[in-house]
Amino acid sequence: MLELYYFYPGCSLAAHIALEESGMPFLAVRVDLKDAAKNAEYKKINPRGTVPLLIHNGVQLLENVAIMTYIDALAPAAKLLPADPMERAQCLAFLVWGASTAHINFRMSFRPERFGAGPALHEEMKALGRTNYWATLQTLNERLTGQDWIMGKDFSVADGYALRFYDWGRIAKFPVEELKAFTAHKDRMLARPAVRRVLEREASPLIQLAAAQ
Ligand SMILES: N[C@@H](CCC(=O)N[C@@H](CS)C(=O)NCC(=O)O)C(=O)O
Fold first, then answer.
1. pLDDT average per 10 residues of sequence, the chain (213 residues)
2. Where are the domains positioned within the chain?
3. CB 69 near ligand 1, within 6 Å
């Protein structure tokens, strides 16, 4: 039995897409991290209080990169990570960059208090986080220029992570539509049935926005 705890608009989207693309049956459990009471309930299951959380046969696994790698190991036929050793390592390098750099740049732009500086520095840190996050989005746009997927010609779990970064950019009112290759990638993702199922389950505005286009 596989269970995935997720939150919209959390980074759990990457693991959620990986699981849906794997074709394995699973239970998706929505967590409301903004509701203090529900958050307290969730901390009884996961004391760290973060998503994504995968539970497989009662064993807990945290961290997007570990979860996506584990899902790939359970469902190799779905080709969620490249088979070639160097391509695989490159894909893992992207996932680690996503967790350690892209995600952290975004976090600094809206949660400076997490970095421990006093309130006097928060506005400055937010501004720096925004500058760095915009650079992150531009890096992703450059990477996608001339290729359909983050890893080149084939879809991989890296693409679900990229979609989360694009949507955070949209939510934080960056001009993401100026990023042509990244926007085309978002549309390519929306055309995948498994991705659509995830976005519908998460009630992501990306679905309504695409319908309104
Ligand atoms: N390094 C973790 C980060 C997980 C994380 O911070 N998730 C956020 C949602 S994007 C969360 O659960 N935040 C709630 C909190 O930190 O209290 C991963 O990549 O899975």
1. 97 98 98 92 96 98 98 98 98 98 96 86 93 98 98 98 98 98 98 98 93 80
2. 2-78, 85-212
3. no
